[in-house]
Structure formats: structure tokens, C-alpha cells
Prior knowledge:
By secondary structure, this protein is an alpha/beta fold. The protein is built from twelve helices and 16 strands. The strands form three sheets. The protein has an eight-stranded parallel β-barrel, surrounded by four helices. The longest helix is centred in the C-terminal third of the chain and has 18 residues, at 312-329. It is globular and about 70 Å long.
Amino acid sequence: MRHSVYIAFGSNVGDRLHYLRESLENIKSFVKDVSTSVVIETEAILPENAPEAWDKPYLNMVAHGDTDLEPEALLNRLQAIEQALGREREHPFWGPRTIDLDILLYDDLRVSTERLTLPHIGLKDREFLWHLLGSIRSDLKDPFTSQTFASKAWGCQQGSGVPAKRSFVLYPQLMGIVNLTPDSFSDGGLWLDHERGVWHCCQLVKDGASVVDLGAQSTRPGASVLREEAEWKRLETFLGCLQSFPVPISLDTYYPNVVKKALERYPIAWINDVTGRLDGDILREAAQAGCKICVMHSLSVPPVHNEVVEDLWQTLEVWGRQQLDRLTHLGFAEENIVLDPGIGFGKTSFQIGILLRTIERMHFGKCSVLVGHSRKSFLNNLEPKPAVERDKETLAISQYLNHKVEYLRVHNVRDHQRVLSAQHWIENAY
């Protein structure tokens, strides 16, 4: 028998979006037809005299779906997910946690045992839960008051305001760009100083980046190629400041020795190869280290003016299947392979339009797709603007790509989260 359940998710430690995302994917194995609210950031609810270290903001969301599990069995599965994601069994009740999963409602059932109370007691006074429940099911009633959660949340908004400090989405995942260069086309020179660069990395995470991509070499048209030793010198001090960084670090390089040094000394989770031609030996090492590999289609790096592919999709499909075969042979699981079609590298602006319109064709096997269109010059077809003024066009394309690709590589992470949250909110309003 299928039962309607509402489950609350919360995280305020480490890579919060990752913990919510992993929990959701695990839950889908026993909760079907899942729909979710947006993710909102709220202040921690704490007792008096709580340790200062506990005062960390939460990311919260609610999911609705159907399950065949009875309440106790459902609770057991949720607690198993919590423990698998690092939450200790004897966790302090009010303390920070990697993930907190609570059954809010289970049909109209009322339960009161030592382990489980339904409806969840937090529904009586946690305004953020009313806000989330009302946003995905406006007619859902609070079993304690018979008011709809939407009307309760609206009443609070007239007084204390909206509980959300900021909103986020889990998908697509955003790769934040950090250019440790003096000459990148959009933000060259802004983050070359390592203290400012580290600050920018931390800000990207706060803004909602799920991956941070570090590059010390500009790949804009006409850029001078930096030698391997100089690229490593720019990266080394910077990487040393990110030893306990909360989200995966991607290293944007095509020099094998730079990859090798970074893998040996620093917590690198991705290799981003814009040439797609890193040698097999270093790729095997990256696969053995558990890294994801992102490979981009390009004819030349930096791109050469007027050097373009002739048959766009025939070229990309042959290239994509060759990359999949090569990288799996070198030890990468398909799930750890990310393909980037190379916006601005060997394609005309008109080909880029076709490519983005039909981007689903980039999916091969279980590989993910990343699109790096942020602020690029093809957008001048719409209105000539300096690179730093192309965020509006970038955001419009990102909205189109939502639900079509797994990753977007962008400069302005915060505005992407704002726009995509609004899109998710309206798409999931019942």
C-alpha cells in the first residue's frame, strides 16, 4: 500500500548542498514520485547558552512522495542515510549535523512512541517548515490547527517576514570559476593575489557552488601560453590554503606534471582538461585517486580565429564516444566522466546556438555534461557588451539548460542560485 509522506532535510556542516543532494538520491530508492521544495537557508534554532560553534546556518528543504514502508521502517532507512553521511548515532540534540532527516507527515497518521512522533512536533512552531510545505502544496493542512500551511506561513510573513535568508537549488550543480590569472577575458587580475583568491573561493561556496574550478592559465583567444613551471608556481601557494575546503576542488590544467604534483599534495577532486588530450599515465593516476575527469572538446587552446568544426554534431558525437571509451579503459567509472562541448572553442556563434538548443545529444552512457557558456563572446550576437556585463544573457541560457545538463560552469554563482530557485519554486508549486 502506498503512503503519502513529507520529509524534512537539514544540514549545517561542511558541503551542505552535497549532503542534501546525496540524501535525496538515496531516498528515491524507497520513496517514489518525489517532488521537492527549494532549498532555503535559515538561522540555527538553539537553546540558551548553546556553544557558539553550534551557531551555523542551516540549509533546509522538504520532499514529498509515496512509500510502501511502514513508519518505523521508513525511520530506520532515514537514520541509516544519516549515519552513512557522517552523522553520529549519539549526536547532541541541538548540535550541528551533516544531515538531519525527519518524517513530518505520514498520511494522516498519529503516532507517539519513544522513537517517533507523528505529525512531527516541529510543525507546531517552526515557521520555515510551514513556508516550505506551503510552497509545494498550498492546500496541505496543519493537523494541529486545520489551517493550511500556506496560510500560516503567509500570516507570519506579514509580521516577522520570510524565514529564508537565501534560496538554492540542488540541480544543476554550479561550478564556480576562479581564475588565478592577470589576463582572463572576464575577471583577469581580480583573484591573482592568493588571499583575495581564497576569499573568492569561500564566497563561491556560500553563494551555492558545488565545485570550485581553479585555473592559472588563460584560455581566451590570443592569450599567451604559460609554461608549466609558472603555472604550478601560481597554483601551489593557493592550493596550500585550501587543504580543508568544504566542496570539491577542480584543477583546470592540461600539464601532466601539474596534475601529478597536485594529486600528490592537495585534496584535488576533479581534473578539468580543456584540451581533452592529457596522457594516459596521469589519467590513470587521477582515476586511481578517485577524481572526476572533465574533458572539453576543442580544436586548439587557446582557440584560433576562424578555426571551426564543419559538421558540429557528427564531430561531437564521434569525440564523445571516443572519450568515453578511452577514459573508461584508463580506469574512470562512467559516473566520474564529465563531457564539456567546448563553447567558444572551434564553433561559430551560430553553431553554439544549435549546440545549446540540442544539448541533450551530448549524453553518452552515464557521463555527465558540463556547459561553460558564462560571459563568453558569442553572446555579443545579442548585444555587444564587455564580458563582465553579460550575466543577464548567461542567466537566460542557464535557465534554458536547466534539466538538460548536470553542471554549469559560471562566474556569478549567487545570481544563478536566485534565478534557478525562482524557476524551481514556480515549477513545483502544486
